[in-house]
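Researcher: Here's the sequence for the chain we discussed earlier.
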Amino acid sequence: MTQVSGEDLKRRFGTRAVHAGHIPDPLAGAVMTPIYQTSTYIQEGLGRPRRGYEYARTRNPTREVLERNVAALEGGRHGFAFASGLAALDAVLKLLSAGDHVVSGENVYGGSHRQMTLVWARLGLTFTFVDAAETASIAAAVTPRTKMVYAETPTNPMMRLCDLAAAGEIARRASALCVVDNTFATPYFQRPLELGADVVLHSTTKYLNGHSDMVGGMLIVNRDDLAERIGFVQNAVGAVPGPFDCWLALRGTKTLALRMRQHDANGRRIAEWLAQHPKVERVYYPGLPSHPQHELACRQMKGFGGMISIELGSVERAKRFAEGTRIFALAESLGGVESLVGHPASMTHASVPPEMRRAMGLTDSLVRLSVGIEEVEDLIGDLEQALAAAG
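Model: Thanks. This is the structure I predict for it:
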């Protein structure tokens, strides 16, 4: 089990991003953490592993540096890396037992909803999905069997917010865990542990890596007892990332502060521009004063990032727009340096029942933008020509 040093936690964010979790390479003093591409390690004798390393599923030096680094960015003490964000979700749900109840935000990533309803519900967990933007709805859904409150904030793709301090308090009163998917905001803009969460989840595939070239997940906690339990699941189930993917993610976190500042600057500018565009019916972006939870966003976030959703009024216009961009690439995922455009109803949230999508406002005419770090004038020009072509 890896643990963050107190010295790393004292440093400011940009310094932590570059240095936290790193230790000098014992062989040659390499500045960059080496890729320890090995499945096993020499032992000095029976029952005497060298420096505690026995088998790479259990421990890998490259992975441990990533775990310490991301944990430090979140202000946590323990980090656990997984092969994907969904593997991280699977691990945290394995802290529960058959018959336990989870209160979850309704507007979570489609893969998260699919795993909860089609895998874990079959194995005995029960789920109640609520609008997590309404604190009263979370509280009303809690039962004596509730063991977890789960939320994304901002949500994917409706950009709703959950009041993390309030959700954490509800979970504490129920003796339940508060788990927060912080993928969209990243620890640069929001740190749920400081607001009362017990566990923070990330798809490291997205902003933490930032270059669209690996898949991974992460769980971060402060509590030693939770760390012991998650560490057991990580080793026992074995859904760990390979060392090269860990190295790629570490390369990404070094520039996280710089990238998030540019994502945020571009996102704000484009959201404001879209909000004035006559061919856009509605813009979903917490940084806009017109967002119904803008005040909460300003209170619990330090920035708003580069994720924007827009309502175009018809599925035909959404299709023409998504297929008509030239810089924004039509692709799954988000959070890379390059700009992407997606159609949630047929891509990321296709597995969510249509009636549930409609109830939360996720229409077939909704388009999601992941605004990259390109020159904002070029991005606006691309969106302008695509909107014109969409009719």
